[in-house]
Amino acid sequence: MSRITEHPILGVKEEKKLVSFTFDGKDLQGYEGEPIAIALKANGVMIHRYTKKEHKPRGLFCAIGRCTDCVMVVDGEPNIRTCVTPLKEGMTVQTQDGVKAM
Amino acid sequence: MDRYEVIVVGAGPSGLSAAIEAAKRGLNVIVFDENDKPGGQLFKQIHKFFGSKEHHAKIRGFHIGEELLAEAAEVGVEVVLGATVIGLYSDKEVSVRIGEEIKHYKGDTVIVATGAAENMVTFPGWTLPGVIGAGAAQTMMNIHGIQPGKKILMLGSGNVGLVVSFQLLQAGCEVVALVDAAPKIGGYGVHAAKVARCGVPFYLSHTIKEAHGTDQLTGVTINEVDEKFRPIEGTEKYFEVDTICMAVGLSPMSQLLKMAGCEMEDNPKRGGQVPIVDEYGETSVSGVFAAGDVSGIEEASSAMIEGKMAGVCVCGYLGYITDEEKDAELLKLEKDLESLRQGMFAPKNRGKLIEKTEEGIDISMNLLKKGYVADDEIERFPGVVHKVGVHPVMECTQNIPCNPCQDACSKGCISIGNNITCLPFIKEDSNCINCGMCVASCSGQAIFLVDEDCGDGTATVTLPYEFLPLPEVGDKGYGLSRNGEKICDAEIVSVKSVKAFDHTNLVTMKVPKEYAMKARFFKCS
């Protein structure tokens, strides 16, 4: 999905520092401090996890840390709400399957 | 266990307002909020607010948020972020999860301002990635600067659905349809009209039948419903979309109050499970107050006043102000709140079908069903008049508590009348100088400056424009009707962007004079 480079009301976003992270082993980039989910979205990632019983895909839904649809395995720890967890250089992000990494 | 005179739960508009009132009178106040930034949902609100000066009218929500934070800092309000309140007990003990720790605090008073959570509706495919809440869309585009999707269907025509649809257009997304199962648009007509004139079709009495896709959303089928909300077979319509936004109401997040033993009720007019409170927000548990959406869904402007009331009340409760001082403050706040709760969208009118304005004029049925006032309906409203030379045309057709237009005109051309909800009209002997302040001040973007006859067979229409790219003088294109259809050729003759307009640019287009009262938007060819 596209980042908004210039907004009619909010203007031009101040440039933040680009950092690298991995998503399921792939090298991706995002802005430091933005939610992991936003960096993933900017890279076109829609599926964050699969449900345990029925193996159904889930993605970003509420974006404010309430619904838990967007939880993933981050730096080895499962159930991390990626919509409210800031991105840091070198993070390892993995699609979650049930309660573990895929 | 640390003790505070006032513990506020939630650093949104209501909680911060409450904390400011208490802190500025010398109480020691602490505010807990689970988010990593204060301000609640205010920073996602990029539209201009309604109301009057006291309600921060014509100021954009995020600017109100900045003002609140500055005021809170000035009076020394302590805000703890990343702090989730997980327990509230009847003796006003509060358990807070901060990081991996759980801490306990004791309050002499507690103000719960936890706000509301979004409602959802379910349909086959609703769990697919790509189906999101309208709040999520706002968070993505207005806070994090990313488009929620490219092609979007909005479900819900209340103010949230309408405002977020407009914001999606501002973010460069395409809104393919605005759908609501109700037979009439729930939000302000002016919000609907600014979406409709961009060409977004409204489907009232429609709901989502099914969302399509295996790994992610690829499309959606809607169908019409009858008066009992049963699907009507054969009315299916398919849209290719990558995103569905749901804006189907809010529910108070009142669990903490229930936990504290406050008397609760199910009140559909307030949005669900709410505490029973007195007129200033005190619950059945002495010293525990509720303010903002948690005690009944309204909007940020009223939440701020309710917060102030609770703040004043705790000052009185703890003896920091006399009863006389408290009553005087509350009386003033009550007046502000009462003026916001007027008009056809007032809480007391929820669910009622209102067919006439306070002035006795028939409401535009087209506005309620399709999002725009039809050409043959617009002339009956008092803000729509014909005059020689440039003059304002105010397409304000519903009684909403709002009056910035009246104050915006330095020549005194515009009057609201005695009541803040009345429809604006042009005073008889007025002399418009074409300054455009009224156009930029109208939070509903419903005012246009029109010169119906420039003498050469053309007319000019000045309209509010909040999109990019901004047209330039000499640009040729089309005049769009109130429902976004191309109806005539148009050429841009003036573009004004001054600081006082606060990003509402004034674009003037020249159109054939027979379209002076019909063309309301511009599209570049």
TrEMBL record, chain A:
Record keywords: Oxidoreductase
GO molecular function: iron-sulfur cluster binding; oxidoreductase activity
The keyword Ribosomal protein is assigned to this record: no
Keyword Oxidoreductase annotated: yes
Entry superkingdom: Bacteria
InterPro entries for this protein: 2Fe-2S-bd_N, 2Fe-2S_ferredoxin-like_sf
Protein name: (2Fe-2S)-binding protein
Organism: Pseudobutyrivibrio xylanivorans
TrEMBL record, chain B:
Taxonomy, superkingdom: Bacteria
Domain 4Fe-4S ferredoxin-type as annotated: residue spans: 422-452
Database matches in PROSITE patterns: 4FE4S_FER_2
Pfam families for the chain: Pyr_redox_2 (PF07992)
Molecular function GO terms recorded: oxidoreductase activity
SUPFAM superfamilies xref list: 4Fe-4S ferredoxins, FAD/NAD(P)-binding domain
The entry's keywords: Oxidoreductase
The protein's name in its UniProt record: NAD(P)-binding protein
UniProt organism field: Pseudobutyrivibrio xylanivorans
Lineage: Bacteria, Bacillati, Bacillota, Clostridia, Lachnospirales
